[in-house]
Amino acid sequence: MKRILLIGAGHAHLNCITEGPTEDVEWLILNASTYQYYSGMYSGLADGTYDIDEIRIDVAALCHANDKQFIKETVIKIDPVEKVVFGASGRRYTYDVVSTNIGSFDWSEDTTRLSIKPNYRLPDTLKRLQQAKRPVLIGSGAAAVEMAASFKVAGVPITLITDPELLAGHPAAEAVSRRLKDLGVHWIRERPIDDEPPLRFKQHPPIDSDAIIRLTGAKAPALFADSKLFTEDGFLLVNEQLQALDHPSLFAAGDAATIVAYPEIPKNGVTAVRQAPILLKNLLHFLQEEPLQSYRPQKRYLTILSMGPRHAVSLYGKSYSTNRLGWYLKRWIDQRFMWKYRP
What we know:
The strands form 6 sheets. The protein has a 5-stranded parallel sheet with strand order 5-2-1-9-17, with helices on one face. A 5-stranded parallel sheet has the order 10-14-11-12-13, covered by helices on one side. The protein has a 3-stranded antiparallel sheet with strand order 6-7-8. It is of the alpha/beta class. The chain has helices at 11-19, 42-46, 59-65, 122-131, 142-153, 173-183, 223-226, 269-287, 324-340; strands at 2-7, 25-31, 35-37, 56-58, 69-72, 75-79, 84-87, 92-94, 97-100, 113-114, 135-138, 159-161, 186-188, 211-214, 231-232, 235-238, 250-252, 257-259, 302-306, 312-316, 319-323. β20 (312-316) and β21 (319-323) form a beta hairpin. It contains 9 helices and 21 strands. The mean pLDDT is 94. The longest helix is centred in the last third of the chain and has 19 residues, at 269-287. Helices cover 27% and strands 24% of the residues.
C-alpha cells in the first residue's frame, strides 16, 4: 500500500483529510499541534464573538473519524531523494508522495515580542496581549487592522503602528481609517526603526511596550531551507501542479509555497482553500501515474474585514462596502467552514 504523508493541517490538508479516499492508500498526517486554529476567526475570538473551542479544529479526532493516522510531530527536515521526513522527536517517516501545508511564520518570540504563527501559539499570545499594560500591534494590512479593531472593542488598550498608507492604498482604507478613529484606537502612522522596545521612530517620540505583535506578512518557515530545497526568500518554489520544481513527489500548498508562474498570489487562507481540490487530485494522480491538473488562481476574491461586532468592510477587487450585512456574511462563511471539519 502506498503512503501519502501530509505535513501540517492547514486549509488545503483539511480537505485531504476529509475527502481523501482510503482504499489502497495509507494517509499519515504530521502536525505540531493536536489543534488547528482557523485564521478567519481570530478577530472574532479577540472581540469576544467566539470562544476558543469555536475557532479550532481537533485534527487528531478529524483524522480518526476519516480513517487516517495522526501523529503530533514537528517536522524538521525532508529528504526528497530517499523520501524520508525527519521529526523533532527523532522519528523518521517514509512516504511515496508528501505534501506540506504548514503556513508561514513570524519573528522569533521573546519576553516582549509575541507571535500567532505557527497558529498553536494563538491562545497564549492572545492572553498575554489582553493582560499587557501597553500592547502594540505592528502592521498595515487586513489582518492588522482587523485585530486592532477587535482588541479595542474588547477593552484592550492597543496601539496600532502602520505605514502612512493602510491596505497598500486600497480605496477601502478611508473607511477603515474612519472606523479605527471612531473606536478610539491609538494609532501611529510611522514604522519603528527596529522591533526592540522601546520602539523608536524618526518622527514620533519613542514608546515602550510590554507586548508587541507584528502582523506584517508571511515569513518562510525554516523547513525548506534546512532541507536544501529549491526556494526563493525561503518559500518552496512549486509549479502550477503544486509540485516542487526539483522533486516531483513533493507538493506544497498555502502560505509556505510560491508558485513560479504566479508569484504575486496572496499568501493567505483563501489561496489554500482554492488550491485544496487540485492538491488532493494531484496527490492521488501522482500515485496512479496519471496526468496532473494545473491550479489557476482567481483574479479577484471577496475579503471581509470584521471591524468589531456587527461592523465589517467588504472588499472585492478595488470595490468595497461598509455595512452589517458583511459582518453577518463573514460569520456565516466562517462557521460553514468550521462545520465541515467537526469530527
